UniProtKB/TrEMBL annotation:
The keyword Nucleotide-binding belongs to this UniProt entry's keyword annotation: no
Domain of life: Bacteria
Membrane association type: Multi-pass membrane protein
Organism, scientific name: Bradyrhizobium lablabi
Gene Ontology terms, MF aspect: oxidoreductase activity, acting on paired donors, with oxidation of a pair of donors resulting in the reduction of molecular oxygen to two molecules of water
First-listed, main subcellular location of the protein, grouped into a coarse class: membrane
GO cellular component terms listed in the entry, alphabetical order: membrane
Signal sequence range: none
Family classification: Belongs to the fatty acid desaturase type 2 family.
Protein name per UniProt: Delta-9 acyl-phospholipid desaturase
Span of domain Fatty acid desaturase: 72-299
Keywords, ordered alphabetically: Fatty acid biosynthesis, Fatty acid metabolism, Iron, Lipid biosynthesis, Lipid metabolism, Membrane, Oxidoreductase, Transmembrane, Transmembrane helix
Classification via InterPro entries: Acyl-CoA_DS, FA_desaturase_dom
Entry's localization field: Membrane
Length: 342
């Protein structure tokens, strides 16, 4: 585990921590080139359909307690391993290393949550750190809360469509041939389509083997499909999106960073640690986002466990300089992508 102190950005004394919602501070326009009515129809249709199917899962014909438990467990496991640990802390910020088989396996889990390919997710998130809460942050709530939560995904953002974004932000990711293949062969779509019959088959086979009629087993299969895929995906989406929206508006600040990031208790708990977002902007490389003892960070606990059994190495601990800085001192966090220089 890395323990050597890492330098932090320059500090200057500011007013005491501000707990007020940040939206009142100022408004900024949408990123350059965005036309609110240039809609991204494929995303709108898929996201809309998933929401409708997720709601249908709660109708009497489809609802099952086993499905609901599967959706909740799947939300936490896929969100924790796929999005938090792999896409965010490992690939985006290089806060740890894992064996390639494990890293690639977690990427497949992340892709089953229908949140972009690894290169694109990483590129967008590094851009967010570099320009957080100023132009051209891809999803700041200073443009509007709706924009930061989901609006930014539903319209065409020219800056995010250029190939240059990969060159600028995700060159390291695309050195791995596995990730290049995922981009080239549209595996994001294939993984999400393939998991549907798998979940149906899991439900059908379990019910049929336990003596249910084919008709009843089909119903169980559909229930497991609806909860295991659509409800889970929608829940993971909104938890990830809440980190972009809620934790830049509501919550407290341990660090006076130069953007509006906040630590939000609700998002911190339901996202398994990603909601301690002010801590994260203050120290993006750290694999641990919960800095106070009560800021529960299940993703960090999982990384610590993986390190103990030899499946995580080069784990980056919180910056020792942060704890010793003067209270209220300002941290410059913009301008870097939160990833080590190559
Ligand atoms: Zn942020
Ligand atoms: Zn980050």
């Amino acid at each position: 585990m890395t323990t050597a102190p890492r330098p932090i950005a320059k500090a200057a004394v500011l007013d005491p921590t501000d707990l007020a919602p940040s939206l009142a501070n100022s408004r900024i326009p949408l990123p350059a080139g965005v036309r609110p009515f240039q809609l991204n129809w494929p995303y709108i249709i898929v996201i809309g359909a998933y929401h409708v199917l997720a709601l249908l899962a709660f109708l009497p014909g489809y609802f099952s307690w086993s499905g609901l438990i599967l959706a909740i467990a799947g939300t936490h496991l896929c969100g924790l391993f796929g999005i938090n640990l792999c896409y965010h802390r490992l690939l985006t910020h290089r806060g740890l290393k894992c064996p390639k088989w494990l890293e690639h396996g977690m990427v497949v889990i992340a892709m089953s949550c229908l949140q972009e390919t690894p290169a694109r997710w990483v590129a967008i998130h590094r851009r967010h750190h570099q320009f957080a809460d100023e132009q051209p942050d891809p999803h700041t709530p200073l443009a509007s809360f709706f924009w930061s939560h989901i609006g930014w995904i539903l319209v065409h953002q020219p800056e995010l469509s250029r190939l240059g974004i990969y060159e600028r932000y995700a060159k390291d990711i695309l050195r791995d041939r596995f990730y290049v293949a995922l981009e080239r062969h549209n595996w994001l779509v294939w993984i999400n389509l393939l998991q549907m019959p798998l979940f149906f088959a899991l439900g059908f086979a379990t019910a049929w083997l336990s003596g249910e009629t084919p008709a009843a087993a089909t119903q169980t299969g559909l229930s497991i499909l609806m909860f295991g895929v659509f409800v889970r995906t929608v829940l993971v989406w909104h938890i990830t999106w809440a980190v972009n929206s809620v934790t830049h508006v509501w919550g407290y600040r341990n660090y006076e960073t130069d953007e509006d990031s906040r630590n939000n208790i609700v998002v911190g708990l339901i996202s398994n640690g990603e909601g301690w977002h002010n801590n994260h902007h203050a120290d993006p490389r750290s694999a641990r986002h919960g800095h106070r003892w009560w800021e529960i960070d299940n993703t960090w606990l999982t990384i610590r466990f993986l390190a103990r059994i030899g499946l995580a190495t080069d784990v980056v601990a919180p910056n020792a300089h942060l704890a010793g800085r003067p209270r209220g001192s300002r941290l410059t966090t913009r301008g870097t992508t939160g990833v080590p220089a190559e």
